[in-house]
Specification:
Blueprint: E1 7-11, H1 15-18, H2 21-33, E2 37-40, H3 50-56, H4 58-75, E3 78-81, H5 84-99, H6 101-112, E4 124-126, H7 127-135, H8 137-142, E5 153-155, H9 165-168, H10 178-184, H11 206-209, H12 211-227, E6 232-235, H13 238-255, E7 263-265, H14 266-273, H15 292-295
Parallel strand pairs: 1-2, 1-3, 3-4, 5-6, 6-7
Helix pairs in contact: 3-4, 4-5, 4-6, 5-6, 7-10, 12-13
């Protein structure tokens, strides 16, 4: 398959289609600009969430994740995702099943009841890695028409993109570079800030179990970014997007403060630098609004 005709099975997950379709629109539009197509995974379910389902009952979580992998295998395509939770769940399921024949056999016994089988013939890719490694920085730079030279970006990786390092295989919490590279290709600067690798506050069911504590963690992170003179935050995770954007509205109700600190999925930020409009990128549907500095 040539680079020009590359096609991925797009695993949408839950948050992207239900709450932030702009993430899907931005990602698909830019991928297509570079000759990369996506196909819908018909019948795909929740990933399911690794920090909740996987922690409580691995033998329920694993067959559900394996079923999603099997759908992509039936399409004869590799998977691309726009959520760290989906990435963690699907990639770790694939890793476990490949490494443990008995676990694979047990899982396939369950899948067989529904006419499916995990074979281990697909791979799971985060869209962040596709942009960085498949499209590449040089090709991206050629498409930048509105450089972000005067913009300071706080990069947020989230919990599942970098860890566990031996499964992910691209950087670590001690050596981050992918988000920084993609922000800098637009001309933006990526200053270091306190709590850069801190959770958004939503992970592990915390957003549901203790909303006030969840919002407090988010508040601390945003304050750190603002104190570092950052103009916005970019990230690679739909669930983090929900917390960091919608959470600011919730934080106003809980604490009486509203930062209106711009939150962008990384493809939305790149899209602005490529000259796409706020509407095309779905940024007009968010709680946080984009300042003139990002819309020049």
């Amino acid at each position: 398959m040539t680079e020009e005709s590359k096609t991925y099975a797009y695993f949408l997950g839950c948050i992207t289609p239900n709450r932030y379709p702009g993430i899907e629109a931005a990602t698909k539009t830019i991928l297509k600009e570079f000759g990369i197509e996506t196909e819908e995974m018909m019948g795909a379910s929740c990933c399911p969430a690794p920090g909740v389902f996987g922690s409580f009952d691995m033998h329920t979580w694993l067959p559900v994740a394996a079923r999603n992998l099997a759908i992509a295998e039936e399409m004869d395509l590799e998977i691309v995702v726009t959520c760290n939770g989906c990435y963690g769940s699907l990639q770790e399921a694939d890793h476990l099943l490949r490494a443990n024949p008995k676990l694979k056999e047990k899982t396939n016994k369950i899948l067989g009841e529904f006419g499916r089988e995990f074979k281990g013939t697909t791979k799971v890719h985060h869209s962040l890695v596709v942009f960085h490694d498949v499209i590449g920085l040089d090709r991206l730079k050629e498409k930048i028409t509105k450089p972000m030279d005067d913009v300071n970006v706080a990069v947020h990786y989230g919990c599942h993109f970098l860890k566990p390092r031996e499964v992910r295989g691209h950087g670590s919490s001690d050596d981050t570079y992918i988000l920084e590279d993609l922000a800098q290709v637009t001309g933006a600067k990526t200053p270091e800030y306190k709590d850069k690798l801190m959770c958004c506050g939503a992970g592990g069911g915390n957003r549901t179990a203790d909303s006030v504590q969840s919002l407090e963690w988010m508040r601390q992170k945003l304050v750190s970014a603002i104190e570092a003179d950052c103009d916005c935050m970019i990230h690679p995770c739909a669930f983090c997007h929900l917390q960091l954007d919608r959470g600011q509205e919730e934080m106003e109700k809980a604490f009486g403060i509203f930062f209106n600190f711009p939150i962008l999925f990384f493809t939305q930020f790149i899209g602005l630098a490529m000259g796409l409009s706020v509407k095309e990128l779905g940024l007009d549907e968010q709680v946080t609004t984009m300042p003139d500095k990002l819309l020049k």
